[in-house]
DNA sequence: TAGGCCATCTGGTCCT
DNA sequence: AGGACCAGATGGCCTA
């Protein structure tokens, strides 16, 4: 959300592209180079510009990817039992709560099916007087109405 | 002011 | 070559 006009702090001569992987080991006999270059020759300034362009594109994709991740997280929040309005779960809280919630739901389903094998832990369901189900999710108790509402 | 959360940038690695 | 994914670094914002 901030205004980072990407001025990379480390666009210097330290070129990490020259790490292992470009086959630069001196003791390995290299294959004879074919007469035709595999890529078009570029001037140093062209290379720098190309690298910047690629970086900018990669940044863009990465930003997009994180936005999609956040979107999915937001969707997950909407299917979790609602908390009081202002308390918005953080990312890690959302994931942990979702995990506990699923476990609790699964246990409830299991016990409703006549299984009954419950060892406590992440919680299970208890049917209320009015037919709704009380789910213990972590240290929170969630009431599921008969229609599925919380 | 310290600490938590978050967005973004960045370089590395793997895959197509 | 280029894209996806990942983890580390950095800086901003907010709250106790």
UniProtKB/TrEMBL annotation:
Pfam families: HLH (PF00010). Residues 1-19 have a biased composition (Polar residues). PROSITE patterns: BHLH. One of its GO terms (cellular component) is nucleus. Residues 1-47 are annotated as: Disordered. Gene3D superfamilies: Helix-loop-helix DNA-binding domain (4.10.280.10). GO terms for molecular function: DNA-binding transcription factor activity, RNA polymerase II-specific; E-box binding; protein dimerization activity. PANTHER family: BASIC HELIX-LOOP-HELIX NEURAL TRANSCRIPTION FACTOR TAP (PTHR19290:SF163), BASIC HELIX-LOOP-HELIX PROTEIN NEUROGENIN-RELATED (PTHR19290). This is Basic helix-loop-helix neural transcription factor TAP.
């Amino acid at each position: 959300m901030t205004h980072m006009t990407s001025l990379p702090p480390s666009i210097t001569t330290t070129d990490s592209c020259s790490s292992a992987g470009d086959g630069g080991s001196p003791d390995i006999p290299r294959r004879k180079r074919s007469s035709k270059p595999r890529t078009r020759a570029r001037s140093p300034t062209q290379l720098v510009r190309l690298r910047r362009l690629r970086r900018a594109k990669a940044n863009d994709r990465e930003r997009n990817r994180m936005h999609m991740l956040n979107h999915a997280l937001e969707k997950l929040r909407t299917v979790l039992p609602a908390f009081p309005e202002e308390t918005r779960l953080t990312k890690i809280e959302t994931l942990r709560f979702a995990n506990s919630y699923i476990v609790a739901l699964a246990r409830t389903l299991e016990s409703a099916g006549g299984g009954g094998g419950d060892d406590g832990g992440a919680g299970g369901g208890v049917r209320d007087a009015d037919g709704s189900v009380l789910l213990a999710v972590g240290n929170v108790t969630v009431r599921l109405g008969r229609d599925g509402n919380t």
